[in-house]
Amino acid sequence: MVPKVDAFRTADVLKGRQAMRPGSFLAHLPEGAWPLLVSSWGADSRVYQRDDELPIGRHDEHVHIVLGGCVRQERHPFGPGKDAPKITRFRGVGQLLGETKLIEPDATVRTTCLTTTWVMPCPLQGMNLLLRRRPHIQLALLRSLEDRNRTDEMIYGTLTRTPLQRVSALLVHLAAVAGTADPAAPGQVTIQGPSQKDMADALVLGVSTVENTIRLLRAPGTDSGLPHGGVLRSGYRQFVVTDLPALRRTAGLS
Question: Model pTM?
Answer without folding.
Answer: 0.91
